[in-house]
Write a structure and sequence with these properties.
The chain has three helices and four strands, in the order αβββαβα. The protein is an alpha+beta fold and 94 residues long. A four-stranded mixed sheet has the order 1-2-3-4. It is globular, with a radius of gyration of 14 Å.
Length: 94
Protein backbone atom coordinates (compact mmCIF):
# COMPACT_ATOMS: atom_id res chain seq x y z
CA UNK A 1 0.00 0.00 0.00
CA UNK A 2 2.90 2.38 0.77
CA UNK A 3 4.44 1.80 -2.68
CA UNK A 4 1.09 2.24 -4.38
CA UNK A 5 0.62 5.60 -2.63
CA UNK A 6 4.14 6.68 -3.59
CA UNK A 7 3.57 5.90 -7.27
CA UNK A 8 0.15 7.58 -7.20
CA UNK A 9 1.71 10.79 -5.86
CA UNK A 10 4.59 10.74 -8.34
CA UNK A 11 2.08 10.17 -11.17
CA UNK A 12 -0.05 13.09 -9.95
CA UNK A 13 3.04 15.30 -10.21
CA UNK A 14 3.41 14.20 -13.84
CA UNK A 15 6.84 12.66 -13.27
CA UNK A 16 6.06 8.94 -13.59
CA UNK A 17 6.74 7.42 -17.01
CA UNK A 18 6.43 3.64 -16.97
CA UNK A 19 6.16 1.17 -19.82
CA UNK A 20 4.76 -2.36 -20.06
CA UNK A 21 5.14 -4.78 -22.96
CA UNK A 22 2.54 -7.51 -23.34
CA UNK A 23 2.54 -10.62 -25.48
CA UNK A 24 -0.81 -12.31 -25.99
CA UNK A 25 -2.20 -10.21 -23.14
CA UNK A 26 0.46 -11.34 -20.66
CA UNK A 27 3.03 -8.83 -19.32
CA UNK A 28 6.54 -9.78 -20.52
CA UNK A 29 8.69 -6.70 -19.81
CA UNK A 30 8.50 -3.43 -17.88
CA UNK A 31 10.37 -0.18 -17.32
CA UNK A 32 9.79 2.15 -14.37
CA UNK A 33 11.11 5.65 -14.92
CA UNK A 34 10.66 9.26 -13.92
CA UNK A 35 10.99 12.48 -15.84
CA UNK A 36 11.81 15.73 -14.08
CA UNK A 37 13.31 18.99 -15.37
CA UNK A 38 14.00 17.50 -18.79
CA UNK A 39 15.80 14.39 -17.50
CA UNK A 40 14.34 10.90 -17.87
CA UNK A 41 15.61 8.65 -15.08
CA UNK A 42 15.49 4.99 -16.14
CA UNK A 43 15.00 3.42 -12.73
CA UNK A 44 14.02 -0.24 -12.90
CA UNK A 45 13.49 -2.81 -15.63
CA UNK A 46 12.65 -6.46 -15.88
CA UNK A 47 11.34 -9.15 -18.17
CA UNK A 48 9.88 -12.64 -18.05
CA UNK A 49 12.70 -15.15 -18.62
CA UNK A 50 10.26 -17.39 -20.47
CA UNK A 51 10.32 -14.85 -23.33
CA UNK A 52 14.07 -14.13 -23.23
CA UNK A 53 14.73 -15.59 -26.69
CA UNK A 54 12.36 -13.00 -28.18
CA UNK A 55 14.28 -10.06 -26.65
CA UNK A 56 11.38 -8.41 -24.81
CA UNK A 57 13.69 -5.96 -23.02
CA UNK A 58 15.16 -4.77 -26.32
CA UNK A 59 11.73 -4.44 -27.91
CA UNK A 60 10.43 -2.49 -24.94
CA UNK A 61 13.47 -0.20 -24.85
CA UNK A 62 12.96 0.77 -28.50
CA UNK A 63 9.22 1.29 -28.02
CA UNK A 64 9.90 3.33 -24.87
CA UNK A 65 12.39 5.55 -26.72
CA UNK A 66 9.87 6.08 -29.53
CA UNK A 67 7.27 7.24 -27.04
CA UNK A 68 9.65 9.31 -24.92
CA UNK A 69 10.72 11.39 -27.89
CA UNK A 70 7.24 11.62 -29.44
CA UNK A 71 5.59 13.05 -26.31
CA UNK A 72 7.27 15.49 -23.93
CA UNK A 73 10.82 14.54 -24.97
CA UNK A 74 13.55 14.68 -22.33
CA UNK A 75 16.82 16.55 -22.94
CA UNK A 76 18.77 13.80 -21.18
CA UNK A 77 18.29 10.08 -20.67
CA UNK A 78 19.88 8.84 -17.45
CA UNK A 79 20.23 5.05 -17.46
CA UNK A 80 21.67 5.04 -13.95
CA UNK A 81 24.77 3.29 -12.65
CA UNK A 82 26.13 -0.13 -13.49
CA UNK A 83 27.21 -2.02 -16.57
CA UNK A 84 24.53 -3.34 -18.89
CA UNK A 85 24.68 -4.17 -22.59
CA UNK A 86 21.64 -2.03 -23.40
CA UNK A 87 23.54 1.03 -22.15
CA UNK A 88 26.32 0.45 -24.66
CA UNK A 89 23.78 -0.14 -27.44
CA UNK A 90 21.56 2.86 -26.65
CA UNK A 91 24.01 5.31 -25.07
CA UNK A 92 26.07 8.02 -26.70
CA UNK A 93 28.39 8.59 -23.73
CA UNK A 94 30.07 6.25 -21.25
Amino acid sequence: EVEREYFRRVAELGMLRCYLLRCGGAPVAFVVGYQYCGVYHYDETGYDQEFAALGPGTVLNYRMLQHLFAENPPRVLDFGHGENLYKKVLGTDE
